[in-house]
Amino acid sequence: MAKTTLLATWREPGQVAIKAAWERRASGGSLRDALESGLAASELDPTLVAIGLGALPNADGEVELDASMMDGHDLEAGAVCGVRGIVPVISVARKVLEETPHVMLAGEQARRFALSKGFEVRNLMTTDNVRWYEEWRDKPREGTEEYVHALSDKEHHGDTVTVLGWEAPSHVVAASSTSGLAWKMPGRIGDSPIVGAGIYADDEVGCAGATGWGEELWKAAASFRTVEYMRGGMSPQEACDATIRQMIRRQPKSTEMMCVVLAMSNSGEFGASCTTGEFPMWICQDGEIEMRLFGVPEI
Ligand code: ASP
Question: Is the pTM of this model over 0.85?
Answer without folding.
Answer: yes
